[in-house]
Amino acid sequence: MIKRILILEKNCSFIIQKLKKKGFICDENYYDSTDKINLSLYDGIILRSRLKIDNEFIKKAINLKFIARIGSGIENIDKYYAFKRGITLISSPEGNKDSVAEHAIGMLLCAMNHIIVSNQQIKKGIWNRENNRGMEIMKKTIGIIGYGNTGKSLAKKLSGFDTSILCYDTLPNVGDIYANQVDMSTIFQKSDVISLHVPYTKKTKGMINYNFIQKFYKPFYFINTSRGECVITNHLVKALKNGKIYAACLDVLEYENLLYENIFHYNQNNKQSKTFFDLIYSEKVILTPHIAGWTKESKSKMDEIIIEKIILLNQQLNSKKIMQNLNDSDSDN
User: Fold this and answer.
1) Catalytic-residue membership of 261
2) Which of 24, 90, 326, 331 is 20 to 30 A from residue 103's alpha carbon, by CA?
């Protein structure tokens, strides 16, 4: 049974209110390190990204039954150790799939039609139509790498653009009426646009590198709204400079954790910083600050999903406990 839950992130008032109405005790702690928190008190934890939930954290949380992350990724949680301990991991990728998909399309439209660049030029008194001649999405082949919640939402939204949509995923038979599932060699051969929607794992870390990019048969537009560390940024910059990639739409950065709070005062002599400024000053790059899944609507949907999953888990645990008690009673007889 789940009784006491620790909330480690701000802006969870709706979640707290709803859970309290269901009888859960919710404690809030937004500043302390794990060394200062008595983790053994809690049956569940709700967070986003403030703390890393490693095996030492989990060892101290001896009564923990679930860890809920508001969002889609769980890379800040030692999921293998959590599974070993029988702890349920909860996330809410269903909640922001549409906002991420819309954001990806918005960035792609801006890149293909030079919307941001021409807007900036006009504000400087430059009226340049020919150099800002765009390209249409219609009739292009879109390659979606990672066909889960967000990839599927993107394909559905792109279906109205009269495109050919291909998807690649490590899981079999995930294609649908919106996207034809193919192997990576077909993605390399046919894609005009690539949109990345994979989780961050050991296998996906740095997957978009120079060798990967060179396998494409033709130049392409690249969108990353998944995780920054899936892309080796200096390899991406090289491909932008040599024309292998027409333009890059990046909502996430490889080193954003290092730059997150002090992004424009970063040491300009640092190699990563130079690469970052290459991105800033390139007219081929559109950057946004990890906001693709950060809409007002997605926040509400993710909160609702987290609440529903916690309540469902508690019901399952209670049912399991009742069945166990019944079995124990039968054994006594």
Assistant:
1) no
2) 90
